[in-house]
Write a structure and sequence with these properties.
Helices cover 42% and strands 23% of the residues. The protein is of the alpha/beta class.
Amino acid sequence: MTRICKVLIVENDSFVRNLLADVFEQEGYHFSTVESGAEMRHALDADDYDIVVIDVTQPGAENGFGLAQLARQRGCGTILVTGDHRHLDRLCESGHPYLLKPFRIQKLLDLAEKILIETAAQCTRRTRSDGSCFPARTQ
C-alpha cells in the first residue's frame, strides 16, 4: 500500500537520517531527507510536505524548535526528535509531538498517522502539482 503523503526528514546524523528514511520508505510514504535547517527551508520552498521530522539539535545557531515553527507556518505537521533529554521541559511546552532517542519505530509511525488524521480534520483539501491530495490518502 502506497500512501500519498510526503515526509521531510531534517537530521544531521547520517545514520539516523538513513534509518528514518528506511522506515518511511518501508511504510510507503514519499519522503525527502536534508541535513540542516537551511536545506529544510529550500525543501519547503520547492515542495509541499505533510510532516516534517526534525532533530532538535542542529548544527550552528539553528535549533529544531525554530524550524518546527517554520514548518507549522507552512502548514506542515511536525515531529521533534532528540537524544538530549535536557530539552524535555521545552519539548513538553512546545506543543509539538516529540520522541526521545532511542525511540520505538512504531511510536514514530503512530505519531505520523495521528498527525495525518488531525490534519485531515482541520484543513481544507488541496491538490499538489503531482495530482495527489492533502491530506494523505491511500492509493
